[in-house]
Design a protein that fits this description.
Shape: elongated
Number of domains: 2
Helix content: under 10%
Number of helices: 2
Distance between the termini: 42 Å
CATH class of the largest domain: Mainly Beta
Strand content: 35-45%
Structural class: mainly beta
Length: 474
Amino acid sequence: MGTNYTDIATVEPLVSAIINDRLDELDANANPSAATLDIPIVAGEALAIREAVYISTGAGGKTAGRAYRTDADDANQSSTSFARGFATSAIASGSTGAARILGVLSGFTGLTAGAPQFASATAGALTESEPGNSLLMGLAISTTEIMVNSRGDQGAVYATGDLPSEFGYILGGNTGGGSFAVVTADRITFSTTVTAANTDSDLSEAKLGARGVSDLTTYGYVAGGQDTGLNFTVTADRITFSTGVTAANTDSDLATSIKAYLGSLSDGSTYGYFAGGSTSLFVLTDTADRITFSTGVTAANTDSDLVTAKSQLFSVSDGSTYGYFAGGDTNSANYEALADRITFSTGVTAANTDSALSVARGWGGELSDSSTYGYFLGGLTDSSTEVVTADRITFSTGVTAANTDSDLSVAAASQASLSSGAFYGYILGGSTGAAVLIADAYQLSFSTGVTAANTDSDLSIARYGPASLAEGSV
C-alpha cells in the first residue's frame, strides 16, 4: 500500500522529506516540463478546480493535515505555508481529492507567458505582482498553463540547465546590403516572444559566420567569423547578461586559428567549445577551442577535436553530460550526416553513429531543451538546396531520427537559433535561396515538438549567418 500523505501531513518534516525526495527523483530522471506529481489531499474548505492550496500544519486555527486556499494576507496561508499546489478538481469540504505539486497544469486564463505566479490576497487566486507574504506557486509557460512549483522557490521548478531565460540575442550576420557583414544585434524577450533591435548588444566588429556560447548566468561569448573585408578572424566579444552590453574580449579570442562557420556548444556550467569551421575559403579544420567560463579564457583543446574537418555543422548540448556536432560541409558543399559526441566530464570528442542525421546537410538551426531532446532544423544539402527537414536527438539514448512535426514551414538555412529554457526554442531569419533573405521566426514547443510561425519574434532586419545565444540556456 502506498504512503497516505494526508494521514501523515501533520508530521511536517517527514512529509517534506517524502515529497522532496520524490521531487528530487523526478528532477534527476525527467524533463520537468513533462514530469507530473499529484498528491492526495482532504479539503479543509470547499476548493474550486485550479485554486492555489496548501496543507495546514494547524497554524491559524486550521485543521492540521487539511488543504486550504492560499491567501497572501496571512503568512500561515502563504509565505510560511507547507506543501503548496493546485486543486486538480473541485473538492467539497471534508472530501478527498488531489493537488498538483509538480508539472504543468492547464486551463487558466489571462496569464502572461514567462511571468512568475504568486499566491494573491484573494483566497486561492494568483497574482503576477509579488506581495509582501510572498509565495511563488509557479511560472506561466503560456497564457493558459502554469509550471507548478511546490517548494516555494523558483529554482526548484527546474532541473539544472532548465532555468528560464529572460533574453536571447541574435548578433551580426549578412543583410544582403552593401556590406558583407553587420554588427546589428536583436534581442528577444522570452516572456513576450517579441524581438527588437538592441544597439547596446551590437558586436564590436561586423561579422558573418561567428558562433556563440553561454555560461547561462553571467556572460555570453561570440567568436570567430568573417569580417567585412572577407577576412577570417579569431576575435571574440563578450555580452554581459545583466546589462545586455557587448564588448571585445581578447582573453576569449580563438586560440587554434582564424575560423568561421564553426560549431559551438556549452556544458551549461564550466566550459564552452568552438569546433571545426573554415580557416579560409575551401580550407576546413577539425580543431577545437575550449573557453573556461570562470576566467573567460579560450585555449586549444586537442582532446575535443572533431573526427573529421568540416564547417557549417550543427551542434547541440544536453546541458550536463554530452554535446553533439552533427552534419556539416566536408569539402565545398559536400555535406555529411555523421555526428561526433563530446563527453563533458573528459572533454573528449569521438564519432557517434547513433546520432547521425537522417539527411546529409549542414548550416541549419539547432535547439536544445537542455534535458530531453535536441533538434536539427533545416539547412543545406549537397545541391546547396535549402530544406525543411527536422531531426530530433533523444539525449537519454543519443539516437537521432527524423521528426516531421518539427519540420520548418519554409525551407531555410543559415538561421539563428536559441532556446528560452525547457519550454520553447526559436529559429530566426536565414536564407531561403540565392540572395533571398528572411526575417521570419518560428517557435518550437518542447512539450509537443511542433514548430510554427511566430511573427512577434521576427528579426528587425532580414539576414543570414548571425551568431545567437541566450542566458539560462545552452
